[in-house]
Amino acid sequence: MPKYDRNFTDELRERLSIVDIVGRRVPLVKKGQNYWGCCPFHNEKTPSFSVNEDKGFYHCFGCGEHGDIISFVMKSENVDFKTAITELAAQAGLKMPDYKPKPAEQVAREESYYQIMSAACDIYQKLLFEPAGSVALDYIRGRGFNDDMIKKYRIGYAPKNNLIANKFINVKQDNLLATGMCRRGDYGLYDFFRDKLMFPIFNARGQIVAFSGRSLDGSEPKYINTTDTELFHKRRTIFGFNFARDAIHRANRSIVVEGQIDAIQMQCNGFPETVAPLGTALTEDHISMLCKANRNIVFCFDGDAAGQKAAARACDIVMPFLRDTSDVRFAFVTGGKDPDEVLKKSGAGAMQKIIDGATGLVDFLWNLANAGFNVSTPGGRSQAEKFLKQKIEKITDAALRAEYDNEYSQRIFNNWHKWKKQNQNIPRMALPEIDDITKNTVIFIVNKYPEIAERYGDFLATMNIDFDGNVADMTMDEKSAEKYIVSLKLQKYIERLQSEKKSLTSKLLAGENVRDEIAALDAKIADARQKMDTLVSM
Asked: What value does the mean pLDDT take over residues 397-414?
């Protein structure tokens, strides 16, 4: 029997989820970290067949069968190894290579790469704490990194000269070049990374496969990464995954941020399940790797246009990986900040609020449709419906796809076509009377900007206002109009909370133990006022 290239079979295991492969033949139910079902290899009524998605193996506690995706296909379909991997390659979208034993020379060469990069990392680490690395050390400490963090993540400094090219003069040049750390010039080899703060990049097994260097003089680009090599492919590498892997299991989710400093700070400040893509946008390979660890993902991006675009792309990529056990959410760090800055200035509690306030995928995709198209017009609604349909068609689980379709069908009917009817028939809350200026302003906004009216229809419908009335034209753009409605909504919310607090205070004076409820209301009032202050200052 010929030997087969482990790189290819490992890639099959990385790309394909064993839960998906086994789930096509065995109904599985998630319990704890594993999935369970009745074993397909012997008759049983009580499920004893366990599937571990992260480790990529199955095990039956009844008959002892054990294996991975390849052995499962071989045994369940009674086919040989080559047939099994051919079938799996088709599912993974991979071309079958010409199989042959992995040459001993290649094994030795790859081991040489690991040794070179680990030795180079040791040199960089040492230099960071020497006079030559003082600027780099001051910078990274200024970003909130202490010495324990620096040592854990093996951060270092690459000097301005050709240190690596000179240090590894006795190493075979082709091997040194193959690591991406050096390049060949007219006068011999020279270092690719010079005068850079160095972050080693680890594979999932904790081996250094590449480096990311940050400029220290303000030059662009801020970061340069090792180009793709035999061991390193940016599209298939997630920064921090080797550190986060166990934490992802414990937290039952992963958090994805935009950069490596954000990822490290998150890991060291209470969010060890955080990772980041590396020098490239999120790819299917990144999502596949994360979903094998856990299908619950929180994407946490900057709130600017670039962050919104990155979130939309992440939403698009994650759709085929959704299962009914998935919980995918989107959080945004606003105010021109990133997670690193939030943690330094406001602490882990503030970051926790951002993560806890993340928007679920169903709502995020709905918001994309509303923001991207003018749903106040028939043509805009048609475009938005096509957009939603195109996205949910990517869901491979038929039952889940049908649920998404049903959810959006109801929202389209209720939110895009029935707002005025809801406005007439919904029970009205007993709110304080509003003055004529406020009433006329709200009527103007509803008539001028119907998309705002639909977005805040539930709130507007509670007000005792005849929206069909005519009012004078006002100078107010759409952004200011929405800001006005949001501030009015916050004001009413604060008034309601204060009324509840007043009632609870009366109970407290009467001897009832309601201090915890009052404290909770105080926290809500403070949070609402902070939002109001932020809105006013925008």
From this structure: 89
